[in-house]
Amino acid sequence: MENEKVVKISDLDLSLAEEFIEDMSFDLFACYQCGTCTGSCPVARFGGEEFSPRNIIRLIMLGDREAVLRNPLIWLCTGCYVCEERCPQDVKPPKIIVHLRNIAAKENIIPSVWSDIAANILTFGLMNEIGEFENKVRKTRFKLPELPTPDADTMRKLAEKIKFDRLVHYKHPEEETGE
Questions:
Q1: Domain span at residue 161?
Q2: Which pLDDT belongs to residue 176?
Q3: Are 67 and 101 in contact (CB under 8 A)?
Q4: Are residues 56 and 133 in the same domain?
């Protein structure tokens, strides 16, 4: 009982829930917290009880904007859509989570691991740099062909066009060194 927080209806910030209702083609409040989404979720099943699409939706409905957007669990959803397929109310948890991620990113609330992955993609064209050493190991040890060098310039141009580079605060390595 000590850790429980009393929430007064007058303290609820329903702006986030209203934003979902405005932006989405479904009613978030149709969710009656049955738990089918969480029971169907592979991340919840294998990643522990902390991840729960139901709890994320509940926090939105309770108007706890900060708790939702700062919750690192919104970044764990794999987008498998099993929860959406099984939801008896057609609430669409994956769309909710993607929308939350977008809002969080716009408010500069991105886990550093995601920013690092984005920086690698914009720098190397892949999540991880594939250099001569990696290609040599592929060729000699595993008898696999070398991987082609991805076109990172095209990735950066695309990112600039959609302002993704700004969203993840990407700075090209040449910009950082002043070259």
A1: 112-177
A2: 63
A3: no
A4: no
